[in-house]
Specification:
Growth Hormone, Chain: A; mainly alpha; 468 residues; 0% strand
Length: 468
């Protein structure tokens, strides 16, 4: 590929960005529509939470399988097939007349995203040569993902005012358009060059089972009325399957995950950074939304508008971030982004019952900048130096880290908030619960910055040794 993007490569990038935008807007719109869904389908709080948790289970549980399937079966084929499945089950969600139908639809939609996301990312990383051109493409990709989530809050508020079912029907229209262009623009070249090896069925089942059970236990941990026996059993079962997976991979002639990929320090740091950043971001956003709607009585529409400024990263990611990466390097930019995220959460810690939007605005604005400096560069760091035939696997591992982080952040801040608030229902008690829970995002961002900083020390040592 040339060092400059032509019209066709721009079209390819826009299609793949459209897919990740679709994922972001789909999740964000549903979050805003939950109260309307509960009212019409007469769902309990526990069953309503499974509308979100089912998606997380499907997404996180099948992400590694999806990434490896893209490498072995063809990235284009996997992307297109699961985009069609995404469309079909989004429609089922919109037509649901019972809670279980909606939960099933969300689970399969999550599985579809688990196959689409790493396939789409690996198409980018294999279509654009490593360096400034790939970095530019990944910055656009990251910015679009964030824009989808930010704009989804507004779109969800608007569509829910008509009917919550449009939260499911609207993505179908966008997904169909993406599908039509994807068929033409995604190259077929990767499908004739796939590695000829057997598929690791035992590894696939063990890791998918492990991921699902571990995420289930994390989600249940945050539920105040969850049966702890089930939670502990799921955690133990997930850990047993995870150990079994590593044993299987060591002995397999065609492993689902080549364990050697985990020996890369930069790769491991990028994934730990992604997990901690997602944990902090989603944990903070969850508390901020509850604060605005439950303590300040803001509507979904007002809440979405208030947090729209976080979407500034959609502008900064493809413009400012590539320049910073070229000027200072990926690692320094990620560390800066994580420290800015910690600063943003720190500014929000003293929230009170009479805070004005003027007092909240700096936190949301700085968090948008932090997202722009962190998400895309983490993607670059996790895929740099990875063999072309393992780009889908690298993407799958990265998105698994993001998903685990999101589940952990939501679960832990919920558990902390409920524990501190206890049986008290006064606004001041709830506020204290929120303040305490906000320490988790702050701590996670600081820890993430420390872990990524190890890369700076390692790089400096290598530079010193090269001069000796």
């Amino acid at each position: 590929m040339e060092n400059r993007m032509n019209l066709r490569t721009w079209g390819l990038l826009l299609v793949l960005c459209g897919a990740i935008f679709l994922e972001g807007i789909d999740v964000a719109m549903l979050n805003v529509a939950l109260p309307s869904i509960r009212e019409e389908l007469d769902m309990s709080t526990t069953s309503l939470s499974w509308v979100i948790s089912a998606y997380v289970l499907g997404y996180g549980g099948f992400m590694l399988l999806g990434g490896r399937a893209a490498d072995l079966l063809g990235r284009r084929k996997v992307f297109l097939i699961w985009l069609v499945i995404f469309i079909l089950f989004s429609g089922l969600g919109g037509l649901a007349t019972e809670g279980w139908m909606l939960i099933l639809a969300r689970f399969v939609t999550g599985v579809a995203a688990a196959f689409m996301a790493p396939a789409g990312l690996s198409i980018i990383t294999t279509s654009f040569p490593e360096g400034s051109l790939r970095n530019k493409a990944l910055m656009f990709y990251a910015g679009t993902a964030a824009a989808g989530f930010s704009l989804g809050l507004i779109a969800g508020g608007l569509l829910s005012a008509i009917s919550w079912r449009w939260v499911f029907f609207a993505p179908i229209i966008l997904a169909t358009i993406i599908l039509l262009f994807a068929i033409t623009l995604i190259p077929k070249s990767d499908e004739s060059n796939q590695t000829k090896q057997n598929f690791d069925i035992a590894g696939a089942f063990s890791i998918s089972g492990a991921m699902m059970l571990l995420i289930f236990s994390i989600v249940q941990f945050g539920e105040p009325h969850a049966e702890r026996t089930w939670t502990i059993s799921a955690l133990i079962g997930g850990l047993v399957l995870l150990v079994a997976f590593f044993i299987i991979e060591r002995r397999s002639s065609s492993p689902l995950v080549r364990l050697g990929i985990l020996r890369s320090g930069s790769f491991l740091r990028a994934n730990l950074g992604a997990l901690l950043f997602a944990s902090s971001f989603f944990g903070f956003q969850f508390i901020a939304v509850l604060y605005l709607q439950e303590l300040r009585n803001w509507t979904e529409w007002e809440t979405g508008l208030a947090m729209l400024v976080i979407g500034i990263d959609a502008i900064l990611a493809p413009t400012l971030t590539p320049w910073l990466v070229n000027r200072f390097g990926t690692t320094k930019v990620i560390v800066g982004g994580l420290l800015l995220a910690a600063f943003s959460y720190g500014l929000f810690l003293p929230i009170d019952l009479d805070w004005t939007y003027k007092a909240m605005f700096p936190s949301f604005l700085i968090l948008g900048l932090a997202f722009a400096l962190t998400y895309g560069p983490l993607t670059i760091s996790a895929t740099d130096g990875i063999k072309e035939e393992e780009q889908g696997l690298a993407g799958g591992l990265l998105y698994t880290s993001f998903q685990f982080g999101a589940a952990m952040g939501l679960s832990i801040v919920t558990a902390i908030s409920v524990s501190v608030t206890g049986s008290l229902e006064s606004p001041q008690a709830v506020l204290e619960g929120f303040r305490t829970a906000l320490l988790l995002p702050f701590g996670a961002a600081v820890l993430g910055a420390l872990i990524i900083s190890v890369g700076l020390i390692s790089n400096r040592k290598q530079q010193i040794q090269s001069f000796e």
